[in-house]
Design brief:
alpha+beta; six-stranded antiparallel beta sheet
Length: about 150
């Protein structure tokens, strides 16, 4: 009798397990391992922070002056959202050997570091960068001030 109950339970367990359909987005869709977005101090009241995002969806914020709160914070985002962000950067990234360097030195320092295939591409400033980078920078800015950092 015990064997019959055990077999019946095993059949139910395995049939339920196979009926689940799980779709998982992994970092294999993008060769970017991580990005680091930084904003430096300026002569006014510019926010100062460093935001790192990994392909696993781990975010680390080092918040400085003029941020809602100062300190080091971490949180996770959905892997699908991280993969989508990295795919947008992939579409924008043409050549990892080119770096954009600002031609104006008195603005707030803005840096986007893209770690891809063992190389790091640095995009500095907001002048002379493609529009797709400007939109990515806006997205990263909004992530930095979200209210649920702990």
């Amino acid at each position: 009798m015990r064997i019959a109950i055990l077999v019946f339970t095993a059949l139910i367990f395995f049939s339920c397990d196979k009926s689940k359909k799980v779709t998982e987005v992994t970092s294999a869709e993008s060769s970017i391992q991580s990005i680091v977005f930084e904003r430096d101090r300026c002569r006014g009241t510019c926010k100062e922070f460093k935001l790192q995002i990994t392909s696993a969806g781990i975010l680390v914020l080092e918040a400085g002056v003029y941020m809602p709160q100062e300190g080091k914070f971490g949180k996770n985002i959905d892997v699908k959202n991280a993969a989508q962000l990295f795919q947008n950067i992939e579409r924008c990234t043409v050549d990892m050997s080119n770096n954009y360097v600002p031609n104006v030195s008195d603005f707030q320092g803005v840096r986007l570091k893209i770690n891809k295939d063992g190389q790091t591409r640095v995009i500095e400033g907001m002048n002379n960068v493609p529009q797709c980078y400007v939109e990515i920078i806006r997205t990263l800015d909004s992530l930095s001030v979200s209210s649920n950092w702990k």
